[in-house]
Amino acid sequence: MSKPNFWRLKRKAKDNAQSVDVKTPKISQKTISSFFRSKPEPTNLLGGQSEKEDSESSQSSSQPKRQKLQDESCALTLEKVPVKLSDSALSKLQSFSTSSKSYEDNETIQSNLRPAKNIPKTSSACNGGRTKPDDDSENEDDPDTVVSSNIKFDAFRSNSQGKRSSQNVVCQGKTGKVKYTPLEQQVMDLWKQHPGILLFIECGYKYRFFGNDAEIAAQELNIYAHMDHNFMTASIPVHRLHAHVARLVEKGHKVGIVKQSETAALKAMSDNKNAPFTRKLENLFTRATLIGEDVDSIDQQNLLLDGVLSAGHIFCLNETHQDAKTTNIIFVAINPSTGECTYEQFSDNSGREELHKRLQMINPAEILCPPAVSKDTERLLNHSQARIEKLPLEWFETTSALTRVTSYFAKGNYEAGALEGLTDLPSPVLACLAAIQQHLEEFGLHRAIRPDCLQALPSGKGFLHLDSSTIRNLQLFTNDCGSGEGSLFWALNHTKTKFGARLLHKWIAQPVCNREVLEDRQEKLTELLQTDHEILTQLKGILSNLPDIEKGLTTILHNKCNPIQYYTILEALCTMRSDLLSLSTFVEQENNCPLLFQLIKETVALLDDVQAYRDNINVTAAKEGNKTKLLKDFSAFPNVLKFMSDIKDTTGALDDLRPEIASKLSLFSVQYTSVSGQEYLIEVKNTNAKCVPANWRKISSTKQVGRYRPPAVDKLFGELQCLREMLKTECNQAWIGLLQEFSQQYFRHKQAVNKVATMDVLLSLAHVAQQEGYCRPKIVEGDNCKIIIKKGRHPVIPLLLASAGQFVPNDTQLDSAGECCMVLSGPNMGGKSCYIRQVALIALLAHIGSYVPAEYAEISLLDSIFTRMGARDELFHGRSTLMVELEETAAILQKVSRNSLVLLDELGRGTGSCDGSAIACATLRHIAIEINCLSLFVTHYPSVMDTANELDKKAANYHMSFVLHNQDETEFLTFLYEVTKGAADRSYGINVARLANLDRNLLQRAATIAADLEKQARQRRDLRHSFSAMWNEHQH
Q1: CB 994 within 8 A of CB 971
Q2: CA distance 452 to 341
Q3: Which homologous superfamily is 313-459 in?
């Protein structure tokens, strides 16, 4: 049925209006064009635009987006005019309405049909220029979608700004139901099958978004969205898929990639060649599962392997309540990109300090939990940077957890001992493991969980305990501004590989309390320091050229890599093996590096099977991504060889047709021509066109020649295309089989990578140990805990200074059998906090097996380091500065032991001096006498210093030395930054106020008040001492 003519409708409406004495203002062509966003051609005004026209008008930067309406009133009224409109025309008229009309009583569809809002009108670079219509949208406007409607145009009006008025366009069909195109119906089916997922839908050489997904994509990606038939739509080119997926995932969206599951050649040979392409969801991505070739283009593979597009940990937790104050928390954490999998079960208080520590240590990208968790846990999770997803409660069922986990692992080829170890896991841990398995299976990453890689989080016995406050206060990984510069990890990290840097991070986050392990690391460091410089240079050169092999192996395990990534990993492994083998010969001849030689020898032995896989790869095909020519030997895949043979026979048959074709054209011989992707064409000059048989199909032509395809060639070429597509499908299956075969040695290759990472970390620590003033600490065991440091220095601050020689070294001597507590006082900005951090960091370095910045260090094995430093509140928890300070102190006192190191910086300063000093004095007495642990106590309270004097032989007063100058009745300080025996008599805070440029008159007034207050305090203190002396004399 032909589409209606708008001018005829206008004339008829005008006649009707005149018959009832209704004045109808004229409508200019400019007004009509502006409403329908098309060229001013009357034959297409109600028929809607094609996708190509819409793309050209919306994306061309040279054409205006929409013409503004002037002061023309358009009160056109058409009553009782039966008009048959296409669905496209109806949808465009409905798009002018500002009402949110529902098209279908389905919640999922309604959410994707809501009107567009705040959609950017500027096209991005990836959407600029002309866009070719996709394969499905060209023929989807079929006659069956045309409905009869009574149309009323209710006062199309415009204001001075060119915006539409709030009056609606009534557009209601007789059937009362909108007809959807085949592609739209397919999209709606996908929405029903995959709710809550932002879908990239492959259409030709583009990925398209529809409905609400298009609105989100337009806002997040800054691309253009427009109305097409019944839905808003936007699109991106195929080659930019990885970039846009990464951007949407980073913003917290769950993204799905829907691909065409059949090709044009196979579709043309099938029975449903008039139906849309079959499509299905191929991949899902979140922030923690950003793994696979769809998030990385072939020319960007190094970015993925180097960790620029990197997935993070998935943290699955559950909780049970022991009592009103204690909660039992269970978690399983896995990094799908590296295969690292840990679990732990622990008790936590209402502050969730322990859970906070684990989250800070693991830094997950995604957190999974049951639908309902406690308020304290939910409050902590909501303030994390991770994406949170709540899983169904039945996934955490403990009764069937063991059955689900073992049934899953039974499918793999694992050793019996590995599966037997699962029975030793607590049932809540198994429940979390089963939940995270089911979650990863949705993403195709379930192979990441392997029973031989499942380990308990090393935070118990054998490891130095560091809570979240200690990690933050000691600035182990970030400074106070959140940057990595100035942290301990920044100072130690001289690794050459990404997996080496991750291992160093793990060593710092999980220090060891095992003397044998620490001394083994120290022996290897000492050996590296004594090794010939040429050997170390060669080893660093080998490591510096390696991609992130650890992540690459896991990507292969998930069957998510493309050929070039697979080849890159194989090439890296083979090159590393050959280079290490050559280096091992040189090291063996030196005969002074037995530990290094052993590491290299073990690594080479674990990679002896890689060369065979590498030799079977066609490098050119791998770089092109051509899986049909990827392997030099396809003998392991007989189906591939069969299709190759059939293709060869078909091409032979095509070649056999050439003599017959030449005779029909009266030529001696002919050759097939390929033009613009069209193969097996017969090129005939236009002067000889009369010789071409009538049944030959003309493909293309120029001014000089015409290109034809005879019926026999056309038939064989169709068969050839079908065989090629079937070969591609079979080669894809062979590719998956190849990856699975290679992944059977995953654990073996992972061990080799871990050994290389260990060498990388040891080389990094050796580089640090070569600096001036570093020594090998002596690790001691025994009943008494001690820290003895001579001329110790901060491991980070000298690196930040213009000259490292400016840093003043200091001694430390703490012994639980004697003086176990240092009470440190002195002027503000004198270096007190820096000094106590320095002691803690030196102790921490000793527990990772590193050399320490000191002339001499003797350090006992500690079980924990606790810190209470700084002043901060937690408004989101409803806790003041003092409350945070005292809760942290209470948590320390509950967990501290005789073998702990405690740092308390100005405890009690968040309240009045009486209460604050009382709390500080009581705490000092408790940790020095009752607990008898090593501690450093910074204070400005004189009463705390007096308490230290009373704790004879257990605590002693020290201060940061300085020189006092008087100039024009003003005091000036010169900081010496040296720890000196004895207490400081004043804090000299006014000196800091002067450095902060406070007003001079204000400073003079403050100095007068301070002098009066200090005089009164001194008199009270002298009176108290006199009374104490008299009382003691009376007692004797």
Answers
A1: no
A2: 10
A3: MutS, connector domain (3.30.420.110)
Q: Are 900 and 868 in contact (CB under 8 A)?
A: no
Q: Single out the residue of 224, 120, 140, 144 nearest to residue 187, CA to CA.
A: 140
Beta bridge partners of 334: 314, 341
Q: Where are the alpha helices (DSSP H) in 238-371?
A: 241-250, 264-269, 301-305, 353-362
Q: Cβ-count burial of 289 within 10 angstroms (0-12 exposed, 13-18 middle, 19+ buried)? A: buried
Q: Report the CATH fold assignment for 778-998.
A: Rossmann fold (3.40.50)
Q: Encoding tokens for residue 717? A: 């070429």
Distance of CA 364 to the CA centre of its chain: 9
CB 151 within 8 A of CB 78: yes
* Cα 728 to Cα 282, 634, 680, 1001, distances in angstroms: 17, 13, 20, 85
Mean pLDDT of the chain, nearest integer: 78
pTM beyond cutoff 0.70: yes
CA 78 to CA 170: how far, in whole Å?
11
Residue at 272: amino acid letter? N
SS3 23: coil
C-alpha distances in Å from residue 767, one per residue of 416, 445, 947, 1028: 43, 38, 44, 57
- CA–CA separation, 777 and 845 (whole Å): 9
Q: Which amino acid, one-letter code, is at 135? A: D
* DSSP SS3 for 230: coil
Q: Could you give the maximum distance between any two Cα atoms of the chain, in Å?
A: 139
284 and 200 in contact (C-beta within 8 Å)? no
258: CB partners within 8 A, 6+ apart:
190, 199, 200, 201, 202, 279, 280, 281, 282
Task: List the Cα angle 151/154/158 in 5-degree steps.
Answer: 130
d(CA 60, CA 39): 14
Distance in Å from the first CA to the final CA of the chain: 122
Encode pLDDT of 131-159 as tens digits. 333 444 434 333 333 333 333 333 333 33
User: What is the identity of the amino acid at 886?
Assistant: L
Query: What is the rounded CA–CA span in Å between residue 44 and residue 39?
Result: 9
d(C-alpha 864, C-alpha 872), whole Å: 23
- pLDDT score recorded for residue 420: 64
Only one residue has tokens 């967990």, namely 895
Superfamily, domain 182-285 = DNA repair protein MutS, domain I (3.40.1170.10)
φ, ψ of residue 741 to 5 degrees: the values are -65, -45
Residue 71 is classified by DSSP as: S
Please indicate whether residue 631 or residue 338 has the higher confidence score (pLDDT): 631
Spatial distance between the Cα atoms of 1011 and 1007, rounded to a whole number of angstroms: 6
Burial of 560 (0-12, 13-18, 19+ CB in 10 A): buried
Q: How many CA atoms lie within 13 A of 690 on its CB side?
A: 1
Q: What is the CATH number of domain 531-770?
A: 1.10.1420.10
Q: Is there a contact between 552 and 311 (Cβ–Cβ < 8 Å)?
A: no
The answer to whether 842 and 797 have CB atoms below 8 angstroms apart is: no
Give residue 78's pLDDT. 38
Closest by CA to 613, choosing from 738, 744, 752, is: 738
Question: Is the CB of residue 2 less than 8 Å from the CB of residue 44?
Answer: no
Delimit the domains of the chain by residue range: 182-285, 313-459, 531-770, 778-998, 1000-1035
Residues 816-845 as b/e (b if ≥16 CB within 10 A, e otherwise) read beebbbbbbbbbbbbbbbbbbbbbbbbbbb
**What is residue 122's predicted lDDT score, i.e. its pLDDT?**
36
